[in-house]
Amino acid sequence: ANLALQEGRLEAAQTELDNAQIQLDEKQMELDQVQAMYDTAMKEKQALLDDAEACRRKMNNATALIEGLGGEKLRWTASSKNFQNQIINLVGNVLLATGFLSYSGPFNQEYRNLLLQLWKREMDNSKIPYSNELNLTGMLVDNATVGEWNLQGLPNDDLSIQNGIIVTKASRYPLLIDPQGQGNIWIKNKEKNNGLQVKS
């Protein structure tokens, strides 16, 4: 009788256990679903945080760029005005440069400056615009080329650099009257790699 009673209790307990296991499985499934939803939400949250951080970085970079460009505005405005003046004065500047290349070769520095002043006076009379602060040397040759010429033996004074410009830029062949031999040394060094032939 006791065995039957205990078996009845065991069966009831087993039924309760099965019911509890079913409930546990259901709750576990719900928990898994909620956990999956939580994981998805956390991934979305992390993605949003990453996007927000990337956006913040881009915004900081854009702000820095805008502030940097704001500082450049004055320089660009001045450069634009300068370029506009260069365009207006281009014809006169080119006229002075070509006159220098064509006619200044035989003369010393003083007479070259006098020629330039006379040409400017004529251009003023003819209302041809030109730059008052025009630097013919800077217009016709860059500093790197002048530096290379100096390394090749050309002296660094204005007259020598102007002579170097005339030798390299003029369309006619130059005749160098060169008592100190500086031009001779410079041309030999300059044209050494171009198959220069020297005849006496």
From TrEMBL:
Residues 148-198 form the Dynein heavy chain ATP-binding dynein motor region domain. Keywords: Coiled coil. Signal peptide: none annotated. GO terms for cellular component: dynein complex. Residues 9-119 form the Dynein heavy chain coiled coil stalk domain. Pfam families: AAA_9 (PF12781), MT (PF12777). The keyword Coiled coil applies. The keyword Transferase does not apply. Residues 3-58 form a coiled coil. It comes from the Eukaryota. One of its GO terms (molecular function) is dynein light intermediate chain binding. PANTHER family: DYNEIN HEAVY CHAIN 1, AXONEMAL-LIKE PROTEIN, DYNEIN HEAVY CHAIN 5, AXONEMAL. This is DYH5 protein. It comes from Nyctibius grandis.
